[in-house]
Design a protein that fits this description.
Blueprint lengths: L4 E2 L5 E2 L3 H4 L10 E11 L9 E7 L19 E4 H10 L4 E5 L9 H10 L3 E6 L13 E5 L24 E6 L2 H13 L2 H4 L1 E6 L5 H11 L4 E3 L2 H5 L8
Parallel strand pairs: 4-6, 6-7, 7-8, 8-9, 9-10, 10-11
Antiparallel strand pairs: 1-2, 3-4, 3-5
Helix pairs in contact: 2-3
Bound molecules: iron/sulfur cluster.
């Protein structure tokens, strides 16, 4: 029997993937279930440090062992898509990231991304890599995870997504252990990811970063090690920052 994960905010989730997002089927076309919309500094990616509006959607069918947004698994408010767009634009900030949860669990995220780009925003999509990205507007900068073994979700990686990424898109590996790094290094070489895309390597908060830096340097891969900036500026468990 598969394990039941317990997160540090006390939430317990059974691991049946489809059931985890079944509640999203009650959201009618034209609406989205939104966890929060706020403005902060972009903490990761090649856009790190820039002011950014975050649209955080509710729901994710994965349960990564180190997930830092379990509060977005099932808490949110139904909103018309036009209202989500209006709120995001009202911050008058050039950069907008749609994140989650997993944004692509909700069909209306696809038109929302295009509408944000139509409005002249630079649009980032943070996605788990487990759902099809082929319908995402080509103006959107995709930041896609490839889940390493210690996440517990490695078998959810949708490898066909690599064929839909653009050279300017970013692939992120979150590393929790030496085993994860070895898997990431092997995967990057096998798919020539550092020649085809921007590759980000991030340590789970608490990992010895000097170890990770040494592994990256020793590999001679053309990858960018990054810190989750917001976790060093604010309390690592703080929300809405
Ligand atoms: S994909 Fe993202 S939101 Fe979903 S469980 Fe993993 S880290 Fe959390």
């Amino acid at each position: 029997m598969a394990a039941t994960f317990r997160y540090d905010d006390g939430m317990t989730q059974t691991p049946a993937a489809a059931g985890r997002v079944a509640f999203l089927k009650t959201v009618p076309p034209g609406e989205l279930m939104i966890h929060e919309i706020y403005r902060s500094l972009q903490g990761e990616s090649t856009y790190a440090g820039l002011p950014c509006v975050f649209v955080r959607t509710t729901g994710c069918s994965l349960r990564c062992s180190w997930c830092d947004t379990p509060h977005a698994f099932n808490r949110g408010e139904r909103m018309p898509r036009e209202e989500v767009l209006a709120q995001a634009l009202a911050f008058d900030t050039p950069l907008v990231e749609v994140t989650g949860g997993e944004p692509l669990e909700q069909p209306d995220v696809i038109p929302l991304l295009a509408e944000l780009a139509d409005a002249g925003r630079t649009v980032l999509l943070e996605t788990s890599g487990a759902l099809d990205i082929s319908q995402v507007d080509r103006r959107v900068h995709v930041i896609m995870d490839l889940k390493c073994p210690d996440s517990g979700e490695c078998d959810r990686n949708l490898w066909a997504n690599l064929d839909h990424l653009k050279p300017t898109d970013e692939i992120k590996f979150v590393i929790a252990s030496a085993r994860d790094w070895q898997w990431a290094e092997r995967t990057i070489r096998e798919h020539r990811l550092d020649e085809r895309f921007r590759v980000l390597v991030s340590g789970v908060y608490g990992l010895n970063l000097a170890d990770l830096a040494a592994w990256v340097l020793a590999s001679k891969l053309n990858v960018r090690m990054q810190l989750q900036m917001h976790k060093y500026i604010w309390d690592p468990t703080a929300r809405g920052v």
